[in-house]
Every structure is written in structure tokens, then in C-alpha cells.
Sequence to fold (279 residues):
Amino acid sequence: MEVIYLPIRKGGVVKKMNNKKAEMSFWEHLEELRKRIIYCLATVCAIAIFCFIFGLREVSVGGITLYYPFPELYDNINTLVFNQIRNDLIRDPRIQLIPIGIADPVVVQLEISLFLGILFGMPMIVYQLGKFVAPGLYPHEKAILIKTAFPATFLFALGCAFAYFIIIPFTIDFLYGFAFAMDIQPFLSLESFISFVIIFLIAYGLVFELPIIMVGLTRLGVVSAQFWRENWRYAFVGMVIFGAIVTPDGSGITQLIVAIPMMLLYVIGYLIAKRLQKG
Fold:
């Protein structure tokens, strides 16, 4: 297959591009995107179905405890995950989880399945995204993308862990503390609890990606570090709006719990971008 070399940008940077990719039409790009999306959806659905219909059984081999999947509709992987989430995040026994609707337990199972599908399918999602955008990148851009892959994955996991172990338990204890002070028995909807947890995990995972995005755009030459400093007011307004969108209550407290860490991460991203640009 013919390969062409196109001289581009300053400094004599050369982009190596497959001729077929260079001549792809809009509809061919759209078809390529559709194919990548299908791969991602197939991966997520396969993992979600597995978590829904399989449980884990324990077996001891030579004194070592191992687990193997076994078909189990009720005591499945989703149920194990739910019980762990409940034990970790609802630390006060006075808070009672209740199903509001008859289908709530099934809806919760499906939500957990989908979340686990996205979580464990993330390597395939990232791989397919890379396959789609790689042909349109210059060699130095590909190098930057590869270098930021691990930090981005680490920061997403760190954001989820920060939300799971610190933010969500604090938020639940803080908000329901008012109910305890008023001598009211607090009941928490089963479906709203899981939705709250999943939304916060994903939101904080994405929030912790902010420095990587800022530094990456600066290193690619899309925006300068000065841009981040000059437009911080607009960024902070956007963070408050983002916090309002992803949080379920109207008190404004959880909105600020999301927005304030974003502001701190924005400052960190700006300082790193500024240092790299000077270097």
C-alpha cells in the first residue's frame, strides 16, 4: 500500500500518513467511527452480561483461596459489588436503604452491570479511540498521546478512589446529619443511592483528568499556558455549572463539593503547563 510523506508545520516536522486514510471521505470517517463504537459497545455489553448472570465461588487450592465464576442469577457479581458499596459508604446503621418501586432491585443490578462494563472495558474503549484518532496525528502528537495514557488512567482511578473513600461517605454523613439532629428516621432510595454513587465516581474520575487535558493541549500547541490564566473566571463558572449538572440534590452543597476540587486541579494544571512551556 502506498505511503506518502507530507511536510507540515514549522521546524520541518514530517507527518507519515497512510494514503487511504488521507483520502477518506466524510462518510468513510463516519463508518470508521461507527465500527469503533460497535467494538466498544460489544465489550461493555459482554462484561455487563457476565456480571449479571455470573457469581463468584470460593475454592481452596493448596491453602490458597481462589475464586471462579459460576452461573448465579441472584447472588451474582453485581450483588457482591452492591453489598461492598453499601458496607463501605453507609457507615451509620440508622440510614435504611429501601426499594421505592418493585423493579428497583433489577434497575440497580443493571446500573451496576453497566458501570462495571465501562470500568473493566475501559482499556478496549481507550484502544479503539486511539485507533480512530491515530491516523490523523503527527508523530510527535502520537508520542504525547502515548505518554499521557498512563497518567490519565492513574488520575481517573485516583479520582474514583478519592470520591469513594472520602467524598461520598462525607456527603452522606453530612446531609443525613440534619435528619439525625431533627430526630427523623432517614430512608434512602435504593436506586437513588446507586445512581448517586456511580455519578460521583464517574464525575470525580473525569474531574481528575483536568490537569492532563490542560497540559496535553498546551504541549500540542493548541493553547498556551497564558490562555488558562486569562480565562480562569470562565473556567470556574463552567465548573460550578458542571457540579450542578452531575449532583442530584438542590442544596448546592454537593455542587460545591464537585466544583472546589476542580478549581484546585485547574490551578495545578495551569502551573504544570506554564512550567513545561517555559522549559
